[in-house]
Specification:
- This protein is an alpha+beta fold and 276 residues long.
- The chain has 3 domains: 101 residues, no CATH class; 54 residues, bsu07140 like domains (CRO Repressor, 2-Layer Sandwich), CATH 3.30.240.20; 80 residues, no CATH class.
- The chain has a 4-stranded antiparallel sheet with strand order 2-1-3-4.
- A hairpin with a 2-residue loop joins strand 1 and strand 2.
Amino acid sequence: MSAEIVPFDWGRMFLGDLPPLFLLEVIFRTTLMLLWLVLLLRVTGKRGLAQLSPLELAIVIGLGSAAGDPMFYPEVPLLHAMLVLALVVGLQRLLSYLVIRSERVETFIEGVPVELVREGVIRLGALSRANLSREDLFERLRGQGVRQLGEVQRAYFEQDGNLTVFTHKDNPPPGLQVVPPWDLQWPLMLEVGTPHSGVVACLGCGHTLMATGPLPSCPACTGDHNQPSGHQESVQSKGWTPATLDPLALDGGGESGGSEKDGGEKAAQAQPGGRS
């Protein structure tokens, strides 16, 4: 059992039972923990930052923890907590100043944008480095009104975790469909080697080509040496789908090539779960 707490004991409230020299240790602890927290947030990636930089998120976490404990733990001295709060704010001002003055510090703390899509083709290596799946990318593109990848000139995964998309203003080329979500309706699948005539899009990366016979393996997936080991084969095995201008069009999706007589209907029925 701890000793009985005397209410409004000013010595306990502000200094506790620790020597004044312990305040120097508080300074060291706060500085070390804040820098460690910033480093960990950089390692975990930008996906969950939701418009906050790693530094800003570290400040929020640090301030919340430092302000909360002395509010209801009587053994936490107020002076120590006040010092921690002042240090966190001071370190934030210092790091913000360094970010402005040094591009190297800015890159270390906040990272750099990642190009995920270029001219309608997904950059698989960049997608992996951003810790995003293809479905994550498609969800974010749908949130910006994108219906198919051919509309996208560039897509950047920013430092704050948001996706910036630049689309063709007029007459976009056909591409891999983004809507409806593939979990609701799987795209029409054409396996490698299937005879087909028309523009097709790779189900793995969105690369398009004009097919006039048996479908080859995707040259973009084969040539992407930045993708993770073991990913190339799984992408190629997913095959192709007819490229589309508007997958939501009432005339059947605005396909630029392919029809049931090309074997597409049989390929769709072969999807897992019988999706078509």
